[in-house]
Amino acid sequence: MRDFSLLLKTPGLARIVATQLLARMPAGMFSIGLLMHSEHVYGNYTSGGAVLAALSIGMAVAGPVISRQLSRWGTLPVLLTCLLFATAALTPMILIPLPLWAMTMLAAIAGATIPPVQPTVRTLYPKLVPHHLVTPLFGLDAALQEIIWALGPVGITTMVVLLGSVTALLIVVALQLVGVVLFIFEPPVRELRIPKATGGFGRVALRPAVLLMTVTSLLLIGSLAGMEAAVVAWFGEGSTLGGFALAISSIGSLIGGLIMGHRPLGPWSLPIRLLVVAAGLGLASMASGFWTLSATLFAAGFGMAPAIAAVSSVIAASVPFADTAEAYGWITTGQLMGAALGAALAGVAIDASGGGAGGMLVSFGIGALAAVVATLFRGAQPDLRRPQGHPHTD
After folding, report:
1. How many angstroms from the chain centroid is the CA of residue 372?
2. How far apart, in whole angstroms, are the C-alpha atoms of residue 279 and residue 12?
3. Do residues 197 and 314 touch, judged by C-beta distance below 8 A?
4. Measured between alpha carbons, how far is 3 from 25 in angstroms, rounded to an integer?
5. How many angstroms separate the CA atoms of 160 and 36, rounded?
6. Fewer CB atoms inside 10 A, N or C side of the chain?
7. Cβ-based neighbours of 296, under 8 Å, separated by 6 or more
């Protein structure tokens, strides 16, 4: 906790953390909101899963390309252009009852142009604090981002119930506009200069540490996307209980991040954290009521933020500064491919089983695979408990 207090005393850091959290808050709302909106429009969760998959695939395909442009054009032009295009694609999706093919096409465009706030801020963080505080900063960021997943699901489900899915999603679009603009105009963000990448496009993704973090991120977020869809289906579109259950999971993640996120990483750190997630999801697949489900999701959440923090710390320690934006872009691509996979598979399982239990089993299976992969290939990541040179000075 001492490291966290030192971080909050760093001039301007708290404001950057707050504005990027606000800019990313819609991430905790769009998925459930679009799932509920699509189910209302088309009458089934498979269509909703297809829309979410298109959104995620758009982000996954474009993520590394757009992140690489941050070093070419600068943060302000890239973030602002993406914001305008994403807003232009999302608005008709919400306002007009389009056929499914048109909805998925616009979802893919919106996903491809979502502003790359996360790669930007995670590239910036190591420039703002001393080297020994980088891992605690990523831990704090991963823990605090659970506010997104605690408030987001509750907020969007409540707004959908009270205001309808159209009004609720328009509010989320407005929130994204305000948050990204505030983030862009923070001086360290606006002034961030990333050197030209050291190699050809995609070469950084072939580094063993980056490849391992990308695959494990894909599986981790895939399991969480499946869990999210399963919880929504478990309680039904008109209930706020699903949002509260997801919020309880996020509270577990927040606590886990604050307790473990600052600790130096060894080869077993990520596998153990992913095993905690998988164990909780396995118990959730056998739950029978709100409190039992919430308790098991809380347990799963305890490993989520620490696992995400571990991924960010490994990238920061393994990749030269000029390549970090693209590396984080590939991590985001992995995460979003996982979200597409998890949402699509869970949607099919939900419709086939007639409830959320099938989707939760899918979530558990993907989460268990993440723990296995991280265990088998743990040697690909550096041991951050040992003093070592920092790639940002390379």
Report:
1. 21
2. 39
3. no
4. 25
5. 8
6. N
7. 280, 281, 283, 284, 287
CA distances from 300 to 226, 227, 274, 296, 304 (A): 13, 10, 9, 6, 7
CA distances from 389 to 21, 92, 173, 319, 320 (A): 30, 50, 42, 11, 11
In sequence order, what DSSP letters do the residues of 279-320 get, joined into one string? HHHHHHTT--SHHHHHHHHHHHHTTHHHHHHHHHHHHHHHS-
Check pLDDT > 50 for residue 82: yes
Q: What is the DSSP letter of 237?
A: T
**d(C-alpha 23, C-alpha 5), whole Å:** 24
Q: Are 158 and 22 in contact (CB under 8 A)?
A: no
pLDDT tens-digit map of 285-301 = 888 888 999 999 999 98
What single DSSP character describes residue 378?
A: G
pLDDT of the residue at 202: 74
User: In the Cβ-directed half-sphere of 74, how many Cα atoms lie within 13 Å?
Assistant: 10
**Residue whose C-alpha is closest to residue 290's, from 209, 191, 356:** 356
Lowest mean pLDDT, pick from 60-64, 321-325, 346-350: 321-325
pLDDT digits (tens, 9 = 90+) for 35-65: 888 888 887 778 887 887 788 788 778 878 8
